[in-house]
Amino acid sequence: NAGVTQTPKFQVLKTGQSMTLQCAQDMNHNSMYWYRQDPGMGLRLIYYSASEGTTDKGEVPNGYNVSRLNKREFSLRLESAAPSQTSVYFCASSGLAVNTGELFFGEGSRLTVL
Amino acid sequence: AQSVAQPEDQVNVAEGNPLTVKCTYSVSGNPYLFWYVQYPNRGLQFLLKYITGDNLVKGSYGFEAEFNKSQTSFHLKKPSALVSDSALYFCAVRDLRDYKLSFGAGTTVTVRA
């Protein structure tokens, strides 16, 4: 079972470059999320999509955009990367209609911005 | 707003001893509470959750957690720790009315042989 698949796993960018992190889930889940993980800060929600066709800002949306392409796919775009966006990014999905919260996570994408 | 506090950055125990990882939460409505574990260079894995009902919740790998509404706590416990339990543990909370899950900063558990 693939679960949640993120690409790429590693990426190095220069300041000002753009890139898109891809995420796909094969569990027919309604909700999808993007988090970033920084040492000592836990996971912080960037954006989420409660269902296909909707997206909402999380705690730290500045500098990011998202697209819920279809039910399976949820991408995160950095239009002009900054060193502060150096982090590990996790995509997650959740399938229960009442959202009792069990999230399934991808393996992470490690991004370094120079 | 909802939030989670994990007061200990690190917990060190000897193998075979009880393990406790502390978590307190703040939420305006009824909470959904979760524990996740992260092994090095991996994504988070779900351990257990409290939604309603019995305050003692049992989960994967022999872990359990106790929901205490008056103390707004949800501590993770394991009666006898294993070296393989060494990992980063996250507590998380969701308000019943919300889709967003808020995580604590994490507690690194080290179990020595």
The greatest interface here is:
A-B, 26 and 24 residues
Ends distance of chain B: 41 Å
Mean pLDDT of chain B: 92
Proportion of strand residues of chain A: over 45%
- How would a crystallographer describe the biggest sheet of chain B? 6 strands, mixed
SS elements, strand count of chain B: 12
Strand-and-helix sequence of chain B, N→C?
Answer: EEEEEEEEEEEE
The coarse silhouette of chain A is globular
**Would you identify the regions of chain B where 5 or more consecutive residues have pLDDT less than 50?**
none
Please outline the major beta sheet of chain A.
Answer: 7 strands, mixed
General form of chain B:
globular
Total of helices of chain B: 0
Mean pLDDT of chain A: 91
Rg of chain A computed from alpha carbons, rounded to a whole number of angstroms: 13 Å
Strand content of chain B: over 45%
- Enumerate the spans of chain A where pLDDT stays under 50 for 5 or more consecutive residues: none
Q: Write down the oligomeric state.
A: heterodimer
Overall structural class of chain A, as computed from helix and strand content, comes to mainly beta
The residue fraction in helices of chain B comes out at under 10%
What does it look like?
The complex is a heterodimer of chains A (114) and B (113). In chain A, strand 5 and strand 6 (56-57) form a beta hairpin. With 114 residues, chain A is mainly beta. In chain A, strands 2, 4, 5, 6, 9, 10 and 11 form a 7-stranded mixed sheet that branches. A 4-stranded antiparallel sheet of chain A has the order 1-3-8-7, with no helix packed on it. Chain A has strands at residues 4-7, 10-13, 19-25, 31-37, 43-49, 56-57, 64-68, 74-78, 87-94, 104-105, 109-113. Chain A contains no helices and 11 strands. Chain B is mainly β and 113 residues long. In chain B, the strands form 3 sheets. In chain B, strands 2, 5, 6, 10, 11 and 12 form a 6-stranded mixed sheet that branches. Chain B has a 4-stranded antiparallel sheet with strand order 3-9-8-7, with no helix packed on it. Chain B has a two-stranded antiparallel ribbon with strand order 1-4. Classes of the chains: A mainly beta (114), B mainly beta (113). Chain A binds chain B through residues 4, 31, 33, 35, 40-45, 48, 50, 56, 58, 90, 92, 99-108, and chain B through 4, 9, 32, 34, 36, 41-46, 49, 51, 90, 92, 94, 99-106.
